[in-house]
Amino acid sequence: MKIVLDDTKRIFHYTNDPLFKEPHIEVDNAPIGDLTEYKFIDGVFHHEPILDDGVTEIIVNSVTGSLMHSSDFSKITCNELSNLTVTGTVAVPDRAFSMPLKRDDGRLILFPVNVINGAFEAVLNFPTSGQYRYTDEEANIDLPAGTFKVAPIKIDVLRKVL
User: Fold this and answer.
1) Could you read off the pLDDT of 65-95 as tens digits, one per residue?
2) Range 56-158 has CATH code 2.60.40.10
3) Domain ranges for the chain
4) pLDDT tens digits, 10-36
5) Can you give the pTM of this predicted structure?
6) In angstroms, how far is CA 104 from the centroid of its own chain?
7) What rounded mean pLDDT belongs to the chain?
8) Are 11 and 1 within 8 A, CB to CB?
9) DSSP characters over 106-148
10) Which ranges of 10-135 does DSSP label H, i.e. alpha helix?
11) 3-state DSSP call for residue 65?
12) What span, in angstroms and rounded, lies between the C-alpha atoms of 24 and 5?
């Protein structure tokens, strides 16, 4: 068996391929199973599985209806009283829930969100201008701390001039 270690001595690749030529360590009697759950220190396998932190990431991958937005969707600008559609992914079962955004004066505004097959869509329509934010704090309102994580989003809502 050939194993390749990362800087922490965790096995990140293993193979029995006789043609494998990348830098590696040859070992006998490797444990059975997923070797990426092991570190190899001083010739000994140590079982140290990577623990899931239990936090579900909300990933935004599209915004439509904005006047402008950054490529990572961290800054969005739109007009008041116009639809802004935000889509992305979140690894939760199909369900509907409320998406709370916090306005610059501290008030929360709630929008309905539907998740189907891990994809979500939120149609936002702000009744008045101001700055709104969506961060881990808002994503976890009324939930146990650390249930969701999201890259911070700031939405500037401009007064629509007629």
Assistant:
1) 999 999 999 999 999 999 999 999 998 888 8
2) yes
3) 2-47, 56-158
4) 887 888 888 888 888 889 888 887 788
5) 0.67
6) 24
7) 90
8) no
9) S-EEEEEEEEETTEEEEEE--SS-EEEEE-HHHHTTTS-TTSE
10) none
11) coil
12) 8
